[in-house]
Design a protein that fits this description.
The chain has 337 residues and is α+β, with helices and mostly antiparallel strands. It has a single domain, classed as 4-Layer Sandwich (Glutamine Phosphoribosylpyrophosphate, subunit 1, domain 1), CATH 3.60.20.30. 31% of the residues lie in helices and 24% in strands. It contains nine helices and 14 strands. The radius of gyration is 21 Å and the shape is globular.
């Protein structure tokens, strides 16, 4: 009996040393969001879901890089719309909103989709109506800054934009457009360059003190997008994914490319198959790079023990922010190869 008791004690000590949670990680150097999530997740009565929602909400209020929250990334009609996602890795319940206008706290609305509906994803005007019903304020997301940005774009012949194979030539003129004949020379092939200054997302992953895992995202999408466009951020398995006992991942970058490959889901499946977080992240990026060598994007990956890594493409290095007992609040970087 003493021998068994000793084994149990040693196992508990070993598990405590191996587990690095609670921990929160988010894309980019959005350390104020990390600090808020870390503050929340240390409280015994709060969860990984709470940390994700409160952390992402900070970026929505602070308009991180002008690419999260209100007043950034106007579409072709000068409107601002938001996307957000929250995933509970314990239950695999998901709530998401896409192309939602007039509501500032997108991640908060996503949580209500998760907790107050049997749906997974609400979009457009329906998402706005739902948010108002849940008590959120209906208010414009457009600011003087976003309107000025749109006016400058219009005066620059609507460059860059996301149209291809249309007339008039979308590389030289504004619309409205119509499709060209199959062999037309018209077409805007990759004129809209993605980088951290014109498109970004906060993607956050967390493990609370009970070992429960969650992930979430929030963004105002691609700048000068075609109205109605929804990117990768609110798509489960693309913008983020989380599974208790396996891990979590969050991706950011050129969403129209990345969503075709579900990088966060791929990373989690790599973890499930025994890969390290570093290898899981690299494999997810390599799958996209095989078809789009110059795509812009990055991913953070964490296993169920709180071990983490990141990988990226199309930039020199990719910053991500961490909150944990080991490092406090810190921004780390991974070189892109």
């Amino acid at each position: 009996m003493k021998f068994i008791s000793l084994l149990v004690t040693l196992n508990l000590i070993f598990s405590a040393e191996c587990n690095k949670y609670p921990i929160v990680i988010n894309t980019w150097g959005f350390s104020s969001a990390t600090a808020k999530a870390w503050e929340i997740i240390q409280k015994t009565d709060r969860t990984a879901i709470d940390a994700i929602v409160d952390g992402c909400a900070i970026c929505e209020r602070e308009q991180c890089d002008g690419t999260v929250g209100f007043g950034g990334s106007p579409d072709e009609k000068s409107d601002v719309a938001l996307d957000a996602l929250i995933i509970d890795g314990k239950t695999m319940n998901i709530g998401a909103v896409g192309s939602m206008r007039n509501i500032k706290n997108a991640i908060g609305v996503a949580r209500h989709v998760l907790e107050n509906t049997q749906h997974t994803f609400l979009v457009g005007d329906g998402a706005t109506e739902f948010a108002v019903q849940m008590g959120f304020k209906n208010e414009s997301l457009t600011t003087q800054q976003s309107n000025d940005m749109w006016k400058q774009w219009k005066s620059n012949r609507c460059q860059p934009n996301f149209w291809t194979n249309v007339q008039p030539d979308s590389t030289r003129f504004c619309g409205p457009y119509e499709p060209t004949m199959a062999n037309s020379v018209y077409g805007n092939m990759g004129n809209n360059e993605f980088n951290s200054q014109n498109h970004d997302t906060i993607g956050m992953i967390a493990i609370d003190s009970d070992g429960n895992i969650a992930a979430g995202t929030s963004t105002n999408g691609a700048r000068f997008k075609i109205p109605g466009r929804v990117g990768d951020s609110p798509i489960p398995g693309s913008g983020a994914y989380a599974v208790n006992g396996v891990g979590a991942a969050a991706a950011t970058g050129d969403g129209d490319v990345m969503m075709r490959f579900l990088p966060s889901f791929v990373a989690i499946e790599n973890l499930r198959n025994g890969k390290t977080p570093k290898k899981a992240a690299q494999l997810a990026i390599e799958r996209i790079r095989e078809f789009h060598p110059k795509f812009f994007g990055g991913i953070v990956v964490m296993n169920h023990n709180g071990e983490y890594a990141a990988a990226c493409n199309g930039m020199d290095k990719f910053p991500f922010s961490i909150g944990s007992k080991d490092v406090g609040i810190r921004v780390e970087y991974v070189p892109c190869t």
